[in-house]
């Protein structure tokens, strides 16, 4: 009887610890979200094509398509999305339907909060500071962050997604430089503190960004060793949102452009908004 009672006590303590940990993590999510949202400028400048007149031609095309003249330059972007997230491999993707919300605030950070729908109940968040996911909302299945490898990998994702959904954050200026690629590709390089990430953006004749790709610091490989490897996305279904033209469908994954490409992230955006914008 004593053994049974001890087992129950240990189980209760363990469950209580997991509950407290989950609550603290959700509080951290909210605090980071609010911090990033507050970075939106209160009186943003408005876009003028003259601001990008000195950039390589594909970059001028990119901005000319994604931002309409006189649009307030709001670098902080919030997205709501559904879609699917691959929990497996290229050979066995194990796609799970998902619902997620995200805030992007280049170069400071991001928060991506998601939960699966049906199948294995996975939920959690990814950010520039942590990666934390659980099953059944309680049991940790991934808890990373706080080291150089995680920060470098997260920064790569952050800048890559800014090229997709936050073009205002990539206007030329301190910490942001553009260089020429080929006739339809421009490279943007963002530096923040000790972190630096280059992203190649390929545009069509109208300037529509159809593909972004970059070398990401990642251990998503058979050796589980952090190294630079190709990551990228295909952008589809562009719509007008508050003076911007942005993709509402994105397919992305590791080893982009190779035979090992695995598009584990299939997003169908349902809403894009800009904190602080009126109307």
Compile the SSE list and pairings:
Blueprint: H1 2-37, H2 57-66, E1 76-86, E2 95-105, E3 109-116, E4 122-127, E5 130-135, E6 139-145, H3 148-165, E7 176-180, E8 185-192, E9 195-203, E10 209-218, E11 227-241, E12 244-254, E13 262-273
Antiparallel strand pairs: 1-2, 1-13, 2-3, 3-4, 4-5, 5-6, 7-8, 8-9, 9-10, 10-11, 11-12, 12-13
Characterization of the model:
By secondary structure, this protein is an alpha+beta fold. The protein has a single domain, classed as outer membrane lipoprotein receptor (LolB), chain A (Clam), CATH 2.50.20. It has a 13-stranded antiparallel β-sheet with strand order 6-5-4-3-2-1-13-12-11-10-9-8-7, with helices on both faces. The longest helix is centred in the N-terminal third of the chain and has 36 residues. It is globular and about 80 Å long. The mean pLDDT is 91.
How many strand elements?
13
Q: What's the story with the biggest beta sheet?
A: 13 strands, antiparallel
Regarding CATH, which class? Answer: Mainly Beta
Task: Report strand order across the widest sheet.
Answer: 6-5-4-3-2-1-13-12-11-10-9-8-7
Going by helix content, strand content and strand pairing, the class is: alpha+beta
Number of helix segments?
Answer: 3
Mean pLDDT over the full residue set: 91
Number of domain units: 1
How much of the polypeptide forms β-strand, as a percent range?
35-45%
Q: Indicate the low-confidence ranges by residue numbers.
A: none
Helix fraction by DSSP (H/I, runs of at least 4): 10-25%
Helix-strand pattern: HHEEEEEEHEEEEEEE
Radius of gyration: 20 Å
Global geometry? globular
Tell me which oligomeric state these chains represent: single chain
CATH topology: outer membrane lipoprotein receptor (LolB), chain A
CATH architecture: Clam
